[in-house]
Amino acid sequence: MAEQTPTPPTPPTPPAPPAAKAPPRHDAKTITALRRFALSITIFNILGYSWWGFEQGFAWPFVALATGYTVEIVLEIIGARTEGRAPRFRGNGFRGLVDFLLPAHITSVALNMLTYVNDQILVMMFGVTVAVGAKWVLRAPVRGRLRHFMNPSNFGIAVILILFPWASIAPPYHFSEHVGNPVDWIIPLVIIFFGTMLNAKLTNRMWLIGAWVGGFVVQAVVRGLIIDDISILGGLSMMTGIAFVLFTNYMITDPGTSPSKPLSQIAFGGGVAVMYGVLTGMNIPYGIFFATAAVCLIRGGYLWALDISLKTRAKEAEQVQKQAAQALAGVQGEAAKA
């Protein structure tokens, strides 16, 4: 009887390599700004619902947050699997998860606070989904990485206003409906103080604020001079409202969707002001949100055009170098033969 050759043991399957560590989403300075921004807007909402007169349902901020958190986490998991890396909310415990959700927290609370859709809570949830989800769709190359270029909460608000004409922004009076003097003066002063501290020390967006505020004054005066039935003082009076102060200090200055260089900040802030003047002169309501969305879209197109131009120039330079190397090699070969 022939002996059977023993079958060699199957070597153990090597463990799968660990997923690549995700690059940090934000630097330390930006995270600090996001934490303070999130804390500020949370306190603002608590006071708004308990004292000042916010008119949305008391449960709506929690529904907005649940929607924003869910969309952010699900899209991050999908993106991590697609890019072969670990999700950014892992690796630093509960604190890492909280820091990861800060942008979604700010976007969700801001969108709910600044829109009024009657009792149609699904419309508000749709706006939050669009605002958070757009960060994964509308992106442009910045310093070698794809980054979103549309201001999330502003974009979500603009989409709601376009798709649901019966919807509106929150009435400006609800920011101080249940308070009187001097509290209704103290509220905007406090917002300006803390907003200035935040933008001067952390986001470095004071050039943008200056260009936006200065441009707003100019467009109000120009509209008053050109259009007969426009009051210059009426156009300027909008600047005294809490909604304008909030927009100036906490929305248009979003560090993720606004430029960082001073000249670029001036162009961005001034561009929003000019666009607002044009839209308002055309009797288009809610121009402040549409103007911001339009300028963000223009900036995104510029970033893509700049990236394509740089890549084209790099390819042309590489081809020139190859041709020069080939020509030099030919000359050296002829010299060697001689």
Automatic annotation (TrEMBL):
Keyword ATP-binding: no
Keyword set, alphabetical order: Membrane, Transmembrane, Transmembrane helix
Residues annotated as transmembrane: 33-52, 58-75, 96-115, 121-138, 150-170, 182-200, 232-251, 288-306
Coiled coil: none
Region (Disordered): 1-25
This protein's record includes keyword Transport: no
Biased composition regions of type Pro residues, renumbered to the chain: 1-21
Protein's recorded name: UnbU
